[in-house]
Design goal:
This protein is α+β, with helices and mostly antiparallel strands. The strands form 2 sheets. A 3-stranded antiparallel sheet has the order 1-2-3, with helices on one face. Strand 1 and strand 2 form a beta hairpin. The protein starts with a strand and ends with a helix.
Length: 158
């Protein structure tokens, strides 16, 4: 396995794994064993820093998440959730044609190997409760607050 590189931000520490020119994993609240070294790794780090500072809303580097076909379907649906918005597990389940699959969506969310880029933090429980998050509920709340705050600023400038 490729050694992970570290990205430190005021909001969260990340360990990022790259394989064959694609991001394959981001570990939240963990440190990698080195700094970004290649131009691609520096590009990934720059985009993640900009996102966590509220200056970037999308990523344009390639990703290769490993998971079952169902996981892939859920992760694809998560990437369609706009910056600054949330969906419930049930809404995501309905969007992929599995109206009774909210719990399965939750499990796929928990297996997401590339959080932030595949924005599983934008999925909440029914009634707006936060539900779970691999990086902890405090981080999930802070990410949602960051996106909401910067969406409001963009709307005000438009």
């Amino acid at each position: 396995m490729d050694p992970r590189f570290s990205i430190e931000t005021p909001l969260v520490q990340l360990a990022v794994a790259v394989r064959a020119g694609m991001v394959v994993a981001i570990d939240l609240n963990r440190s990698g064993c080195r700094d970004p070294e290649t131009p691609f790794e520096r590009r990934v780090a720059m985009q993640l820093h900009a996102y966590l500072a509220g200056r970037r809303h999308q990523f344009d580097f390639p990703i290769a998440p490993h998971g079952s076909p169902f996981d892939q379907q859920v992760w694809h649906a998560l990437q369609a959730i706009p910056y600054g918005e949330t969906r419930t597990y049930g809404e995501v389940a309905r969007s992929i044609g599995r109206p009774q699959g909210a719990r399965a969506v939750g499990r796929a969310n928990g297996r997401n190997p590339i959080p932030l880029v595949i924005p599983c933090h934008r999925v909440v429980a029914a009634g707006g409760r936060l539900g779970g998050y691999g990086g902890g509920l405090d981080l999930k709340r802070r990410l949602l607050d960051l996106e909401t705050r910067h969406t409001v600023l963009l709307d005000a400038q438009a």
